[in-house]
Amino acid sequence: MRSCDLVIIGGGPAGLAAAVAAKKKGINDILVIERDERLGGILNQCIHNGFGLHTFKEELTGPEYADRFIRQVQELGIVCQTNSMVLNITSEKKVTVLSRTEGMQDIQAKSIILAMGCRERPRGALNIPGYRPQGIYTAGTAQRLVNMEGYLPGKEVVILGSGDIGLIMARRMTLEGAHVQVVAELMPYSGGLKRNIVQCLEDYGIPLKLCHTVIDIKGKQRLEGVTLAEVDENGRPIPGTEEEYCCDTLLLSCGLIPENELSQGMGVRMNPVTNGPVVDESLETSIPGVFACGNVLHVHDLVDFVSEEAKCAGECAADYILGQLDKAGKRGIAIEVEGGIRYTVPAEILPERMRGNLKVRFRVGNVYRNCYISVYLDEKRIAHKRKQIVTPGEMEEVILEKEQLEGASRPEKIRIVLECGEKQD
């Protein structure tokens, strides 16, 4: 068994940013483990632009954004092991890795950062009736085929789900010469960013049908068509609303699931809403010295936010290794949510460990208009921000100041509330 100060699981945007931050904080013994043959994660297949506006103040493609961090990792001399699969992590932070070149390894880490990213929800989880013919792909698989393998999956396309990957692939398939007939969305709102709806659908005349889903798949060997139907408020198809589409390709963009099998296996406390770990203000999980960031923690809409979060995780992991991050005997303050807010990251705050202002991110569970986001310390309201619209597809945030949470005025609980129909003070 070898030992290592910091082991980072995942060499995507979160893992790379965390590694750079930890190195700059003085941690030299760092190992980044990546299962793919190259670093960069999902960014390698995201050849569209729009990345880096917050982080680098310029518009980059996915590979360009990844390259910025890969170069930093190389310049800092951080060790990265690709083509390696982590099989198990124990609560004592022992990592078991299987590598093509190194074989089976056991690595004892002082600290671990979980940055495994997320995966797409497969068709099997959607319970669509019909056969299983060729021509059905998740949107991410199709993106890899088109952008990295040079293979166009089909010519006549229907997309189920309006997540950002599905919206982007509607445009990408169109640019490659395919005909995208429709994007169907089960919910009464899109799960993607507004800018993607405009730039990927409206600019190309691709219709978006809300409250619609696929109820049947035609074809045995190769996909021949699908049947769409409108659904009621319970998600059940409405008889008489069926529409037939002849197509050879169905792309599924029906949500992302954080890759947390390793986290669950080591006993990390999980959030049933995000399917990611429960973390505090330092992004530390319920196991001391184990941190989480990026899409393994909660699904982000912008990679810039992933990098910002990962920087915090890397710095806090470094502080833990250096003995500067202790919560022994300290009582955290839980964050409660109300009024349509689904979760927050972090879910708990230890004011003594805050390094200044803390950004709390969250998502809502529906579309709300003309509302207010309010923050309460016990019963005292300290923030009241008006929002014209909030949607599930875009993350929201509030800022908490350290001075408000510590000392004699330390609250017992923090509440973040979505208040609709309230007049501004």
Radius of gyration: 23 Å
CATH class of the largest domain: Alpha Beta
User: In DSSP terms, counting alpha (H) and pi (I) runs of 4 or more, how many helices?
Assistant: 8
CATH topology of the largest domain, anyone?
FAD/NAD(P)-binding domain
List low-confidence stretches: none
Which class of secondary structure composition applies to the elements? alpha/beta
CATH architecture of the largest domain: 3-Layer(bba) Sandwich
Count of discrete structural domains:
3
What kind of sheet is the major sheet? 7 strands, mixed
Coarse morphology: globular
The residue-averaged pLDDT reads 93
Measured as a percent range, the helix fraction is 10-25%
Strand content: 35-45%
Cα(first) to Cα(last) distance is 62 Å
The fourth-level CATH homologous superfamily of the largest domain is FAD/NAD(P)-binding domain
- What is the number of beta strands? 29
Give a verbal description of the structure:
The longest helix has 19 residues, at 303-321. The chain is globular and about 65 Å long. Strand 11, helix 4 (164-175) and strand 12 form a beta-alpha-beta unit. It has three domains: 2-119 and 257-326, FAD/NAD(P)-binding domain (3-Layer(bba) Sandwich), CATH 3.50.50.60; 122-254, FAD/NAD(P)-binding domain; 352-420. It contains eight helices and 29 strands. It is an alpha/beta fold. The strands form eight sheets. Strands 1, 2, 5, 6, 7, 8 and 21 form a seven-stranded mixed β-sheet that branches. A five-stranded parallel β-sheet has the order 10-17-11-12-13. 20% of the residues lie in helices and 35% in strands.
